[in-house]
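Possible regression after last week's pipeline update?

I re-ran a chain I had predicted before the update to compare outputs. Posting the input and the new output here so someone can diff against the archived version. Not blocking, just want to make sure nothing changed silently.
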Amino acid sequence: MKPINVGLLGIGTVGGGTFTVLQRNCDEITRRAGRPIRITVVADKNLELAKQVTGGACRLTDDAFSVVNDPEVDVVIELIGGYGVAKQLVMQAIANGKHVVTANKALLATNGNEIFQAAQDKGVMIGFEAAVAGGIPIIKAVREGLTANRIEWVAGIINGTTNFILSEMRDKGLPFDTVLKEAQRLGYAEADPTFDIEGVDAAHKITLLASLAFGIPVQFEKAYIEGISKLDAVDIKYAEQLGYRIKLLGIARRTPEGIELRVHPTLIPAKRLIANVEGAMNAVLVQADAVGATLYYGKGAGAEPTASAVIADLVDITRMHTADPENRVPHLAFQPDAMIELPILSMDDVISSYYLRLRVADKTGVLADITRILADEQISIDAVIQKEPSDGEIQADLILLTHQTREKCINAAIVKIEALGVVAGHVTKLRMEELGK
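New output (post-update):
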């Protein structure tokens, strides 16, 4: 049977892994796909690197547009990244009637609606399993495996860099800046780690998962994003003493008022499986009505784990290559004409429990003043810990855990608490999630 011819754009870490795994497991992949899948052309600015990786097994070029315009190429794998030329290449490939596989979560989170519509109009497929959680098949699980369910919420540790940093801060008690430098030295963090540590990368991914889970358009611009760069090691220590772990979570939740779409550091009970995901590993927890909670765990990055997801998409496309476009699995799980517009909630309207840490004067009546302010905002306290001041100090840490309340209520209370003369500096606020029924 005629092979599927693939054009690979970018042969860096993931591109190299894809080429290697496809070559190594070609017999097994062919048995599954029903026909051979072969990379016939690779485009990369570094032709010497491309030659080293491919060993001369396919044609090389430094002109990516020549690949998407090549009539012999059936599928284009886009592994260039970014929003600019990558979008042009993907749109041109679609216009030429080619299927596309991409790991580019940033591109899909910001331009997904346009790209998926163009693909729908042209009758081609966009595979993006590798765009979320690397080698974990979470896209297929949500889009196909859970199709019988009404999904209630998705919560994920979907950025390995931040999870590594938080794990090291907890294990070693080190400050954020020190652990970040170590993460960069080990290759877990980029030279410019902003997208990772400020939560943008996780927000790209949870945006795509929200669309798959709820059948809503891609709306990255409405996501609430808060990273870990301002997280203090002392809060990780206190959370541990209280029976919690702090993780950077991407959360998408369906509520009667709309969809919560948010990324932020979160206290999770240590007894939860997802709280024990350490190092650079990823995990996604999905709560659905029929099946209950399901957890997906694995490597969220790396050459071969991500290549595994890229090639899985290639096999799917190969199997469905000649199928009626109307009978293929929809890109975002729901039929395109059945997507619905649901409001994305402002963070002010999100309901959560909270961890508050205050530096307060060690004197009588302080706690009473603070609890009175919280009560005025209809916020009830779940637990209180007051640390003894160190020798010679006149201030101590006060930690409060609240029951659920709206974010705007806790923010209003914090403004009043910070105005008290007995409170020094700012109140540290972290959200808490039980992640259970």
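Follow-up from reviewer: compared with the archived run. The CA atoms of residues 7 and 70 lie 9 Å apart. Marking as no regression found.
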